[in-house]
Amino acid sequence: MGTKSVRRTETGAHQLPSIPVGRGQVKGPPGTLSRVTILIDEPVWPAHDTLWAHLVSDESYEELHAFASLNGIPRRGFDHDHYDVPAARHDELVRAGAQAVGGKELAVRLEASGLRVPQWRKRQLS
Q1: What is d(CA 55, CA 84) in angstroms, rounded to the nearest whole number?
Q2: Among 73, 80, 81, 84, which one is least packed by beta carbons within 10 Å?
Q3: Pairwise CA distance, residues 48 & 4, whole Å
């Protein structure tokens, strides 16, 4: 797994190259084809008087940390294999390049990438 570059588009959104999504790819800037690896599920996880979503990469932790940093998500929001992000940030992160997916698809793709940290391992690390 190599490190991918992150760049800003003309609108200021962060553009990340990535891997195929589903059966196709996501079209990037005119004349290019970029692929999405930053995924975000629906904010359905309650805590601290709000709902939370999970932000993951199915490519690398480096890509995930770069996307989070560029979008002002503090490192303290990282939970071993994902960032917890409040519902209020969901649409903004999708506009910045994260692909909205259902929770099941997010879990399947994270597992398939080899980046998922099982709950038993998270307990050992905490």
Answers
A1: 6
A2: 80
A3: 34
DSSP 63-112: HHHHHHHHTT--GGGB-SS-EEEEGGGHHHHHHTTPEE--HHHHHHHHHH
Entry pTM: 0.68
Q: Would you list the domain boundaries of the chain?
A: 7-125
Please give the angle made by the CA atoms of 38, 43 and 28, to the nearest 5 degrees. 30
43 alpha carbon, distance to own chain's centre: 13
Tokens of residue 64, six digits: 């995930």
Q: What is the pLDDT of residues 93-107, one digit of tens each?
A: 999 999 999 999 999
Q: Is the dihedral of CA 39, 45, 47, 52 positive or negative?
A: positive
Q: Which residues sit opposite 16 in a β-bridge?
A: none
Instruction: Name the burial class of residue 101, with classes exposed (0-12), middle (13-18) and buried (19+) by CB atoms within 10 angstroms of its CB.
Output: buried
